[in-house]
Specification:
Length: 173
């Protein structure tokens, strides 16, 4: 699946062909629906992004027997990037659900709340490091915040504006 590439090229049929008859769609800033609504939803996604996209890059792709997850870094025509994720649930060779995530800030410079769809389905426990990190930034303690961080080579912080604004190493953070 090449979700954003297909949307940008208005190749909606290639995406619709990948959906099961009962597929559920939940597209950030566009709406929810079923396979029967896909053409309209994909057109809305195209209309929402058509003047915004400069380049589409796949940042990371994960696939197993049940899911496909694609992380995108979409370079916009403005000064921001649009980090985006597509999560698709597999049913054989097709997909029974498709959900997209991205911040609306790089496009609208505002925020939009979106409820989780996993509420009550799984129990998450935040690691102690994460709890301590948020406690430290809540009280404004740079020193304690820095103590919670790892400075290994593959660790970075990405700002909401996109991948071009990431910080590595103790000095960078």
């Amino acid at each position: 699946m090449n979700y954003y590439e297909s949307i940008h090229n208005q190749n909606f049929d290639s995406l619709i062909h990948l959906l099961t008859d009962n597929a559920e769609l939940n597209l950030q800033s566009v709406g929810v629906g079923t396979k029967q609504d896909a053409q309209v939803l994909f057109q809305k996604q195209y209309d929402y992004l058509k003047e915004e996209i400069n380049e589409i890059k796949v940042f990371h792709r994960f696939e197993d027997d049940r899911n496909l997850v694609i992380e995108y870094d979409i370079l916009l025509n403005n000064t921001f990037d649009l980090p985006a994720v597509v999560i698709a649930t597999k049913e054989g060779e097709k997909f029974s659900s498709l959900r997209t995530y991205h911040s609306v800030y790089p496009i609208t410079e505002g925020h939009e709340f979106r409820a989780t769809f996993l509420e009550g389905q799984i129990e998450l426990t935040e690691p102690t490091e994460v709890v301590n990190y948020f406690k430290s930034i809540a009280v404004g303690s740079t020193e304690n915040t820095m103590k919670t961080l790892s400075f290994e080579e593959n660790v970075y912080f990405r700002e909401p504006a996109g991948w071009r604004w990431n910080h590595k190493s103790k000095e960078g953070l």
